[in-house]
Amino acid sequence: DKAKTVIRVAAANAMDGKVIQIRASGHADRSGTEKNNLKLSKKRAENVRDALIAEGVTSDYIAIDWFGEVMPVLMTPDNMREVQNRRVEIIFPQ
């Protein structure tokens, strides 16, 4: 529910502010393999993109990228779960 609220607010802000580009960057924690974490981070970014579109943001305005486990918020040992590293950052580039 919290994530849906964040996406709803981001979409509303983008449309109200006439933002023409949004970047959704997916990330993962260090549990699992690097290959799997890359896939997970991509899926997270795609899910956010789809949710933004469902909220009315034009798909042409949304770019996604994904980084797997290489850009953690909290540095952890390999194979350690960390919920804060499982995220999508929504950015309005200027």
Characterise this structure.
- The protein has helices spanning 2-16, 34-54, and strands at residues 22-27, 62-66, 87-91.
- The chain starts with a helix and ends with a strand.
- The chain is elongated.
- Strand 1 (22-27), helix 2 (34-54) and strand 2 form a beta-alpha-beta unit.
- Helices cover 38% and strands 17% of the residues.
- It contains 2 helices and 3 strands.
- It has a 3-stranded mixed β-sheet with strand order 2-1-3.
- It is α+β, with helices and mostly antiparallel strands.
C-alpha end-to-end distance: 29 Å
Could you tell me the radius of gyration in angstroms? 14 Å
Largest sheet: 3 strands, mixed
Strand content bin: 15-25%
What's the rounded overall pLDDT mean? 95
Note the total helix count: 2
> What is the H/E order?
HEHEE
How many β strands by DSSP? 3
Strand order of the largest sheet: 2-1-3
**Poorly predicted runs:** none
Envelope shape:
elongated
Portion of residues within helices = 25-40%
Secondary-structure-derived class: alpha+beta
Provide a concise account of the structure shown.
The protein is built from 2 helices and 3 strands; from the N terminus they run αβαββ.
Question: What's the structural blueprint in terms of helices and strands?
Answer:
Blueprint: H1 2-16, E1 22-27, H2 34-54, E2 62-66, E3 87-91
Parallel strand pairs: 1-2
Antiparallel strand pairs: 1-3
Helix pairs in contact: 1-2
Descriptors:
alpha+beta; 3-stranded mixed beta sheet; elongated; 94 residues
